[in-house]
Design goal:
Elements lengths: L13 H4 L4 E4 L1 H4 L19 H6 L1 H6 L4 E4 L3 E3 L9 E7 L6 H13 L3 E6 L41 H6 L13 H18 L3 E4 L7 H11 L3 E4 L6 H7 L5 E2 L2 H12 L5 H13 L8 E2 L9 H4 L3 H13 L3 E5 L28 H16 L7 E5 L3 E6 L2 E6 L8 E5 L9 E4 L7 E3 L5 E5 L5 E5 H10 L9
Parallel strand pairs: 1-2, 1-10, 2-5, 5-6, 6-7, 7-8, 9-10
Antiparallel strand pairs: 3-4, 11-12, 12-13, 13-18, 14-17, 15-16, 15-18
Length: about 475
């Protein structure tokens, strides 16, 4: 089905996206509207569709998410269930449905107040250079970079060399030549049509460093005001900032590595504030829309390497409350434990979409409090940390975290800087009736057992949250 033009989407700015929480999913793995197609083989199509997403939007909304990031939707090479091996940028992947199915899903999401972010690829196509004759719209050798300045196999080996990264092939994939005027303009035209046709609200852009910064400036200007967050798969903040400077934001990979260090490997929690301080110096105001995450489709899941759910929940809590655009990978709420690709790309329907699981209810609680207090409008303040404890507040939400784990015993800390007044009664959002304290002039004491984290809000807010939430399970423990 060839792409046509429909009514233009309303662009969403970076400032507007700062208020959102994003649920990342792979279309092929989130929800099927038919039979399972892959069994235990996660390297092929499993049967997820746009209609499947549409039918399960309540599951996403029930956790408090108001945006989704879906994997690329264009026709793909071979078993390209993930979407990153395009063969025809003008056609929808028929395994997922039709363009009308995509638009219907987006419209249904909008009707529930959920924005949609579409994953796009500008760097490469699928298959090998020998396959390009049948590709659309780039079917000529001139549309791709040659190998003159590349290693003998034409692939990227030295990821510290910008020239090699931009000019050579990523794992053998045909590398688009954006210096070619036709390619440069056609990419903008094709993706503008996808934006208009599907009515999406934002873009996640794949493999940003593999394309020259000058082209990103042209591409962004060509697409207009729509929000673009880019993938810069690197732990160096300066590298991420320089390569993503012509986009609205980048995925927060440096903080991802810090979160993994602190919670998965139980390293010193002062590293959190060291990283955030670095962010403020490097990214400045863009920090508020850096995509903060714990898991994604390109890395082994947290729980594949650290099975303690208390440590995982602490990491999730930090990602949902720290400065940035929170992004949670599907299946995290069900404690999925898949290892490296493709094992980290499990089928969510194996969980039966359990809305009473501990992870689901935990995320629901945090997201509800986050939204009620509009914490994105308040800066991160009163940061404190030592080797095993960290705390901070955003407005009237005070967060306390520990990385001792479920067998770590009792952790007590008194913080002298906090957002409450002496005499205020504040309650933990996870146990709003049982865990309340009156603030004294001696500071605020966190008393945490078994690796738990706590989030304190004014008692009046906690009562509203306990009535608003759809569950009581956590509150009865």
């Amino acid at each position: 089905l060839l792409l046509g033009l429909m009514a233009a989407a309303e662009p969403r700015s970076a400032k507007e996206w700062a208020s959102r929480t994003v649920y990342q999913l792979l279309t092929d793995r989130f929800a099927s509207d038919g039979a399972d197609r892959c069994g235990d083989n996660l390297s092929v199509y499993c049967g997820g569709t746009f209609k499947g997403i549409k039918d399960r939007l309540d599951y996403i909304q029930g956790m408090g998410f108001d945006a989704i990031w879906i994997s690329p939707v264009v026709a793909n090479y071979g078993d390209g269930y993930h979407g990153y091996w395009a063969t025809d940028l003008t056609s929808v992947n028929p395994n997922f449905g039709t363009v009308d199915d995509l638009r219907s899903m987006v419209d249904a999401a909008h009707s529930k107040g959920i924005w949609v972010m579409l994953d796009m690829v500008v760097n490469h196509m699928g298959g090998t250079i020998g396959d390009i004759g049948g590709f659309k719209p780039f079917n000529d050798n001139s549309h791709y970079h040659g190998c003159d300045s590349c290693p003998s196999d034409c692939n990227i080996h030295d990821f510290t060399s910008d020239n090699e990264v931009e000019q050579c092939r990523l794992a053998g994939l045909p590398d688009l030549n954006q210096e070619n005027e036709f390619v440069a303009n056609e990419l903008i035209e094709v993706y503008t049509k996808w934006i208009n046709n599907s009515n999406i609200d934002g873009i996640r852009m794949d493999t940003v460093p593999e394309v020259s910064p000058s082209y990103w400036k042209k591409f962004k200007e060509g697409l207009g005001d729509i929000f673009i967050i880019g993938e810069v798969f690197n732990g160096d903040s300066n590298y991420c900032n320089s390569h993503g400077s012509n986009l609205d934001s980048v995925l927060s990979y440096p903080m991802f590595y810090t979160i993994r260090d602190v919670f998965q490997s139980q390293q010193d929690m002062t590293k959190i504030w060291q990283r955030l301080s670095e962010y403020e110096n490097v990214f400045g105001s863009k920090t508020s829309v850096l995509g903060t995450f714990v898991d994604n489709h390109d890395n082994p899941r947290f729980m594949s390497q650290q099975g303690d759910s208390k440590l995982f929940l602490g990491a999730i809590l930090l990602s949902l409350t720290l400065d940035g655009l929170p992004i949670m990978y599907y299946g995290s709420e069900q404690y999925f434990k898949g290892g490296g690709d493709p094992q980290c790309r499990e089928k969510l329907w194996t969980s039966n979409y359990n809305t009473q699981s501990e992870g689901y209810l935990y995320v629901q609680t945090v997201n509800t409090a986050r939204k009620h207090l509009s914490i994105w409008e308040s800066p991160v303040e009163n940061q404190y940390a030592d080797s095993n404890f960290a705390s901070f507040n955003r407005g009237k939400m005070l967060v306390g975290l520990t990385n001792v784990g479920s067998n770590g015993g009792n952790v007590k800390r008194t913080v002298t800087s906090h957002p409450f007044n002496v005499g205020d009664t504040v309650c933990n959002i996870f146990y709003p009736e049982k865990d309340c304290v009156t603030v004294s002039d001696q500071g605020f004491m966190f008393d945490m057992n078994g690796g738990e984290s706590k989030v304190f809000v004014p008692q009046s807010v906690a009562k509203k949250l306990s009535h608003q939430l759809l569950h009581k399970k956590l509150f009865q423990q």
